[in-house]
Amino acid sequence: MKDWLDAQYEKYNRRRFVHPDPLECLYGYDNPADREIVALIAASLAYGRVRQILTSVYDVLGRMGASPYAYLTNETADRIRRDMSGFVHRFARDCHMSALLSAMRRVLAEHGSLNQCFKTCMAPDDRSVFPPLCRFTREMLADCAHGAPGHLVARPEKGSACKRMNFFLRWMVRKDRVDPGGWDEIPPSMLIIPLDTHMFRICRRLGLTHRNQPDMKTAVEITDAFRRCSPEDPVKYDFTLSRFGIRKELSPAGGNIFYI
Fold first, then answer.
1. pLDDT digits (tens, 9 = 90+) for 208-238
2. For residue 256, what pLDDT is reported?
3. Which of 26, 56, 155, 208 could connect to 203 by a Cys-Cys bridge, CB 3.0–4.6 Å?
4. Range of the structural domain that residue 65 is part of
5. Taking all residues of the chain, what is their mean pLDDT, rounded to a whole number?
6. Is 259 inside a domain boundary?
7. pLDDT at 98 over 50
8. In total, how many domains does the chain have?
9. Is 28 part of a structural domain of the chain?
10. Across residues 171-177, what is the average pLDDT?
11. Contact in structure between 191 and 235 (CB atoms under 8 Å)
12. DSSP string covering the chain, please?
């Protein structure tokens, strides 16, 4: 299994296989202070058709200007609400997006960066990102004076796989040919696989889980299975495996058993 996974990683973990993926929205931001904001916006909107996700993410970023960090640290909550007026992405409306941005604005004012806030949520005995992620989302939702972001910020303690928040962490913590990184002080060994129904089916076919629901318990079980192949970086295989069924060159015509 490890040899096969490593071979797929070497072959497909490359930027030419990224599009279409919300991850590509991060590549235009060299400053981690901007990139972490873009990553959280892109991850929060990562549901539905991928091309609509990209359109929605770029819509928000276009309203924020060249530097999302400068925008959130310089603009008022009222200005953010005005700038996001009319935004729609499936179930998300302008009130949800402006609330998310206002929550990030408050965190930046209190901690200096999302990274620093997340680090303050970590305890010495944490073995995965699950406990600090619970604390981080509580911090994000601590003051909803300017509205609540609703489903844009998932609560890990409720049991769902929290795919979008785990995408956010993967993009910011890992650094290789695909994931741009920026949060250098958090070890990749703590990450949890971003589990959606597609990845869930692939992992079941690989025998990495026999559970019936793609929830947080299943995500942890699959991550533990990957950890046996890559103890320091168990989530390294996520991008590669998620290409199966997305990229046309990995279609059934190519004989790939994971195209579902």
1. 999 999 999 999 999 999 999 999 999 999 9
2. 47
3. 208
4. 2-254
5. 92
6. no
7. yes
8. 1
9. yes
10. 98
11. yes
12. -HHHHHHHHHHH-SGGGT-SSGGGGGTT--SHHHHHHHHHHHHHT--S-HHHHHHHHHHHHHHH-S-HHHHHHHS-HHHHHHHTTT-EETTEEHHHHHHHHHHHHHHHHHHSSHHHHHHHT--TT--SSHHHHHHHHHHHTS--TT---GGGS--GGGSB--HHHHHHHHHHH--SSS-----TTS-GGG------HHHHHHHHHTTS---SS-BHHHHHHHHHHHHHH-TT-GGGGHHHHHHTTTSGGGSGGGT-TT--
CA distances from 141 to 96, 151, 154, 168 (A): 12, 11, 10, 17
Q: Which residues pair with 93 in a beta bridge?
A: 88
SS3 per residue for 27-52? CCCCCHHHHHHHHHHHHHCCCCCHHH
pLDDT digits (tens, 9 = 90+) for 118-169: 999 999 999 999 999 999 999 999 877 667 899 999 999 888 999 999 999 9
Residue 260 forms part of a structural domain: no
- The CA-based angle 184-190-196, given to 5 degrees, is 110
